[in-house]
Amino acid sequence: MKYISTRGQAPALNFEEVLLTGLAPDGGLYVPETLPTFSQEEIASWSGLSYTDLAFKIVQPFIGDCIPADDLKVIIDDTYVDFRHPSIAPLVQLDKNEWVLELFQGPTLAFKDFALQLLGRLLDYVLERRHQKVVIMGATSGDTGSAAIQGCKRCSNIDIFILHPYQRVSDVQRRQMTTVLADNIHNIAVKGNFDDCQSMVKASFNDKSFLPEDRQLVAVNSINWARIMAQIVYYFYASLSLGGPLRPVAFSVPTVTLVIFMPVTWPLKWACQLISWLLPPIPMIFCTVALVIMILPSTT
Q1: Which 3 state secondary structure label does DSSP give 162?
Q2: End-to-end CA distance of the chain
Q3: Active-site residue list
Q4: pLDDT, position 274
Q5: 51 pLDDT above the threshold of 90
């Protein structure tokens, strides 16, 4: 599969190249040139698959031949071994037609564990094969940083630098980030707000002259397609668990940022509606730890 920039002025790349690139050279985001297509019958046949088996079905077309299928399956199985619930993303019923998808079962209690646990392992696999080391730089208001650190702390080919606003993250998330005692983990508290941290990260990507010649800068924020790809899975998992694609469902996503909608707007045009609300600006604790799912009346 090839990936193209949303601004259309950058060369097309394969998955491995996109994984290591972040923003496209023209400032756009790399997205798939075409989307994989699955018939309703094929999707319905996935009902009853474990979360990891379903993840392989969905993720593999986006990766193509960049990672052999057997190796990818091992990576995915290993990704979710530290999640506390055997279902990975369990559903809890609230009412007759309302369910909650719990996304806080990962190591840092954040939904971003679903993507960043996989991203760290994909990076380490690709970098080991290329005999390459990279520097990850990210800005966080709390949850991205702790999830990225947990996902990358075991990676021998990655040095990770996370910038967070000083005294503007929750104490839980500060401790999650700053108590990981690994030589490749670096936390930087910035006297300012999240936007100040993000500006520093963007400036670093625009001018990489500070890097040694043998190092490359990689992103872990949502500009990395692998993050979106991994989060698509739990929408499929929830829908299939509730009778999709033959039974329509609606997802309600609590969020402070519209980027959270991307994983559901990409794959689920066939089976769901999206309902959303925006939370007022508040000190960040955990964002989108659960989704509310409603079973819709059949239109047939």
Answers
A1: strand
A2: 35
A3: 112
A4: 41
A5: yes
Tokens of 98: 């309302």
6 in a domain, yes or no?
A: no
Domain count, the chain: 1
Q: What is the mean pLDDT of the chain?
A: 85
Of the two residues 225 and 253, the one the predictor is more confident about is: 225
Query: Does residue 213 fall inside a structural domain?
Result: yes
Count Cβ atoms below 10 Å from residue 209 Cβ, excluding itself. 5
* DSSP alpha helix (H) spans, the chain: 15-19, 40-44, 51-63, 69-79, 113-130, 143-152, 171-178, 194-206, 225-241, 262-265
Q: pLDDT for 204-231, tens place per residue?
A: 888 888 998 889 999 887 778 899 899 9
Which range is least confidently modeled, 11-25, 38-52, 121-135, 249-263?
249-263
Contacts of 232 (CB under 8 A, 6+ apart): 58, 263, 264, 266, 267
Supply the DSSP symbol for 300: -
Range of the domain at 173: 113-218
The CATH number covering residue 121 comes to: 3.40.50.1100
> At CB < 8 A and 24+ separation, what contacts does 220-224 make?
220/116, 220/119, 220/136, 220/138, 220/144, 220/148, 220/151, 220/152, 220/160, 221/138, 221/139, 221/144, 222/259, 222/262, 223/22, 223/23, 223/29, 224/18, 224/19, 224/22, 224/119
Judge whether 132 and 157 are in contact, CB under 8 Å: yes
Domain-embedded: residue 139:
yes
Task: Please name the residue that has the structure tokens 């001018």.
Answer: 207
Model pLDDT, residue 286: 34
On whether residue 168 sits in a domain, the answer given is yes
In the prediction, which pLDDT does 36 show? 87
